[in-house]
Amino acid sequence: MNWQWLSDNSADIRSWFLAHLYLAGVSTVLGLVLSLPLGMIAYRFRWTYPPLINLAGILYTIPSIALFVLLPGLIGTSFLSPLNVIIALTLYTLALLVRVVADALRAVPEDVRLSAQAMGYRPLASLLRVQLPMAIPVIGAGLRVAAVSNVSLVAVGTLIGVQQLGQLFTRGLALSNYGAFYTPIWAGIVLSIVIAVAFDLLILLGIRLASPWQRVSR
Amino acid sequence: MSARPRNLAGVITFEQVSKRYPDGTLAVDGLSLEIPDGATTVLVGPSGCGKTTSLRMINRMIDPSHGRILIDGKDITSEPAPLLRRGIGYVIQNAGLFPNRTVLGNIATVPLLVGMSKRAARARASELLERVGLAPELGKRYPAQLSGGQQQRVGVARALAADPPILLMDEPFSAVDPVVRTELQDELLRLQHELGKTVVFVTHDIDEAVKLGDRLAIMAVGGRLAQFGTPAEVLEAPADDFVAAFVGRDRGYRALSFASADALPVHPEPTVKLGEPLRGNGWLLVVDDTDAPRGWVNADEHPAGQPVRQQDLRLGGTLLAPGGSVRTALDAALSSPSGRGVAVDAAGKVRGTLRPGDVFGAAERAATSGSTEAYYDEKQLTATEHAELTAAEQGADRLSKDGR
Ligand SMILES: Nc1ncnc2c1ncn2[C@@H]1O[C@H](COP(=O)(O)OP(=O)(O)OP(=O)(O)O)[C@@H](O)[C@H]1O
Ligand SMILES: [Mg+2]
């Protein structure tokens, strides 16, 4: 570890760290927010489930680098804009979570759903106030996967010039031309892990707060 | 809970109602039925005969293919289904509680839906918790922290929370053990006595049906109504072979439930107190300090003059309380090692014993004369009428003499 190099570049590292946090965080949140209504549609109107889930599956298999490069041509964003990263990762999150949301809603026991109906909930109210709260632990588990994968995918944005912790890896590569210099690479890995763990803990906390019934002892 | 006006309490009318499912199954076939208000009507029949389908058509969870259903003369399709359902309590087999809400949260569901304030709904929920016999501290628990029987009580409390005139119950007690089931049945009888709702209860257990129902609707496979009548009518005069087979071989014995045992002579029975020295011979009835029966001891096998200990007792046996039936009296006699059935008063003190000969005589008379009127008189009282009766001294007397 070359501490001198780290302190010389601390201003850059800090701004990359914050940018990384922002890009991964915003796309995770946007993906979640969009996946909820879509997942509910896939659950509520059964015929929409197969097309939506298949579409999501295809979207998810497109390599991220291809999406980063294609997006400007498709939607007219500027080529180096961080927006491309946000949109691409939002789509990945969405693709992953649509299915999780729909399946989690489906997993709510039949008799709970029927008693909500029998109590006099309208269909949408039942979905939002009975099924959805019960699906939170499962959706949360899917969200943890999406968040952590977003943290690592953001780094790929380096290839289209978006500033974030991925810069540390190209920097490390460049500086290793005349002999191994791994300091930037280690710094990039450690800081990525810090972000991923922070997201994970935050989501776990959210799940616990939103579903207190899950940890009651019998 | 205030008593409802008698004239608007939820008469449910099925007019030529049929239900054919999309796959072609005819679940209910031309059902015409008037379910009286303020009483318990039990839909009973073998599995798959359309009980659940019929029940769910009442709150529009299932729509009939033909015919219509009226409540107090009004077509149930004349208001939006969610609004209709808020006025109809519904209890299912596994309670169907919301696992993510506390017990109080569950009970407060419908009051909140109908626009009651949070505070009022909570107060109402606490009141109901107590009403169904649960301790207040259970209110903060989640359903997973309750026993099956407790969950079922919460299910009943939740269904009653908005004071609906109608209560639909689909095999609510079939998933709990027999002891708890009996408790829950007794609790329902007590509640119904206080509230006088129109209860529609589904079961495939004829004993449960006879115990809880003021009316039985016996359904046959294919969704056909085979007989509609009081339990006594159904047991004494089954309408056809299907009903006769369904109510079973024990139906003569069951019918004894409708004959009051209050006229049976009660003979004085010498008793010995637990812990006191034994004197006499043959079977002796042992009581505790409050004169409540504890069991029988055989003096011939017990060293004379020695105190009677708990472990010397033959325990168990049915007791005949005031208002008991000939069926209970018969069981009291048959379950007693001495052959003498123990009769107790309302406080549980020993009154004396019944002679087997008297009991068999009463059983024979009940079987031949069909002495069921006393049973109807009491069961058909509405909550209001019951209150009036209880207020009048002589009414209370009559109840305890004629009771079931
Ligand atoms: N959604 C459905 N689609 C097709 N057929 C159905 C459906 N629901 C019930 N049935 C059929 O309709 C008939 C009546 O069903 P229902 O559930 O009303 O019976 P049940 O008397 O409540 O039976 P159980 O005592 O077993 O609960 C059965 O033959 C059943 O298989
Ligand atoms: Mg059923």
CATH class of the largest domain in chain B, please? Answer: Alpha Beta
Number of domains of chain A: 1
Using only CA atoms, what is the Rg of chain B?
Answer: 24 Å
| Helix content class of chain A | over 70%
CATH architecture of chain A: Orthogonal Bundle
Mind telling me the C-alpha Rg of chain A?
A: 21 Å
The SSE string of chain A, one letter per element, is HHHHHHHHH
The helix/strand class of chain A is mainly alpha
Pairing-aware structural class of the strands and helices of chain B? Answer: alpha/beta
Query: What CATH architecture of the largest domain in chain B do you see?
Result: 3-Layer(aba) Sandwich
How many strand elements of chain B? 16
The global form of chain B is globular
Full CATH superfamily name of chain A: MetI-like
What attributes does this structure have?
heterodimer, A: 218 residues, mainly alpha, MetI-like fold, B: 404 residues, alpha/beta, Rossmann fold, CBS-domain, six-stranded mixed beta sheet, 16 helices, 21% strand, disordered N terminus, binds adenosine-5'-triphosphate, binds magnesium ion, membrane (chain A), ABC transporter permease subunit (chain A), MetI-like (chain A)
Folded structure, characterized:
Chain B: This is ABC-type quaternary amine transporter. The complex is a heterodimer of chains A (218) and B (404). With 218 residues, chain A is an all-alpha fold. Chain A is built from 9 helices and no strands. The mean pLDDT of chain A is 90. With 404 residues, chain B is α/β, with parallel strands linked by helices. Chain B has 2 domains: 12-248, P-loop containing nucleotide triphosphate hydrolases (Rossmann fold), CATH 3.40.50; 266-367, CBS-domain. Helices cover 35% and strands 21% of the residues of chain B. Chain B has helices at residues 51-58, 81-86, 103-107, 109-113, 118-131, 148-160, 178-195, 206-212, 231-236, 241-247, 251-255, 326-334, 356-369, 373-379, 383-391, 393-402, and strands at 12-20, 26-35, 40-44, 66-71, 74-75, 88-91, 166-170, 198-203, 215-220, 224-229, 271-273, 283-287, 293-298, 319-320, 341-344, 350-354. Chain B is globular and about 75 Å long. The model of chain B is unreliable at 1-7 and 370-404 (pLDDT under 50). Chain A binds chain B through residues 109, 111-112, 114-122, 130, 133-134, 211-213, 216-218, and chain B through 59, 61, 82-86, 88, 90, 92-101, 109-110, 113-114, 141-142, 144-145, 158, 168. The site of magnesium ion has 2 residues of chain B, from helix 1.
